[in-house]
Amino acid sequence: MAQAPDPAAPPEDQTDPLVLVPESGDTGQPPALGRRATGELVHRLDADDAFPVEWTKLADHRYLIAADWPAGHRFFAPLPGGVQDPLLVTETMRQTAMMLAHAEYGVPADHHFVMWDMSYALATAGFGLADASGRIDVLVECSEVQMRARSLAGMRVRLTFERGGRLLATSTGSLSATSARAYRRLRGDKMPDAAAPAPLLDGIPAQRVGRRDPRDVVLAPSEEGPGWRLRLDTANPTLFARANDHVPGMVLLEAARQAAVALAPDGRFVPASLAIAFHRYAELNEPCLVLARRETSREGDVSVHVEGVQSGEPVFTATLGDSPQAVR
């Protein structure tokens, strides 16, 4: 997640406002969609970790997706108070973008994806399981679509999440795709790291970062002063669903969330908004330092700024907030 196979990152989002999700009609049933999602398309072979279910094309570069959000999950577990895990928004966006890239934009199965940036904002302060589980309707607009030899090279996506006509969240992100051959040239001698296990560090206490299972902790005590070391458990079935030659972006997202929770005075922080940018690949066998600072506005809104640093260079930067807001 980061170094570009293309020389320039995609430009800023310039999409028009989204249309509303179509009504289900007089039957009271959700609309039947055209094509079924598969584990191969969403890069999740474990059905419990695959959230898009089916989709249909509404118009050029516009799609309606049906997703299934669990009321309980081994990793995306409900937060205290029956709150749905907001990171389901980013994971559903990631899976949806790759699915459409393969099925609608001709990306071969052996190509590699780079996510450049991701952001989301909850539209409701509650985000409880009663509203944010089960079938979720996701309207997707793809923009800045770049094609190379009939295959997608890059695009930006904007998603609107609704359930029963109620707006839950919005999100945006950009990704690019590169061939296996170009990826091998790009990564060079880093490719063998996919077979070499990363050293497993002792994590900080799970409850300190809002986790129940110590195996889900991605932060370890730092030996270099403030912050934490990134902890990599390559046996984690959700964070490391397949062999990889770099740290998956999902791990970096979780590191940002756990850092924000660790700084909360009461140990509770619900990321109602999040924006993250990936600057370069995070290597598996090099120490990565995670730094964070917490700020509170005059109105009482909390924001947490998180940075991952490896070999003196930023790997990712993220800002998390505790108040719902509109993604622009």
From TrEMBL:
Q: For this protein, what is any one GO molecular function term?
A: transferase activity
Return the annotated region ranges for Disordered. Answer: 1-36
Recorded hits in InterPro entries, A to Z, give: AfsA-like (IPR047757), AfsA_hotdog_dom (IPR005509), HotDog_dom_sf (IPR029069)
Which residues belong to any copy of the A-factor biosynthesis hotdog domain?
41-173, 209-319
Entry's Pfam families? Answer: AfsA
- Source domain of life: Bacteria
> Which residue spans traverse the membrane?
none
Among NCBIfam families, the record links this protein to: ScbA_BarX_GamBu
Output this protein's name: ScbA protein
Tell me which species this is from: Streptomyces seoulensis
Origin organism lineage: Bacteria, Bacillati, Actinomycetota, Actinomycetes, Kitasatosporales
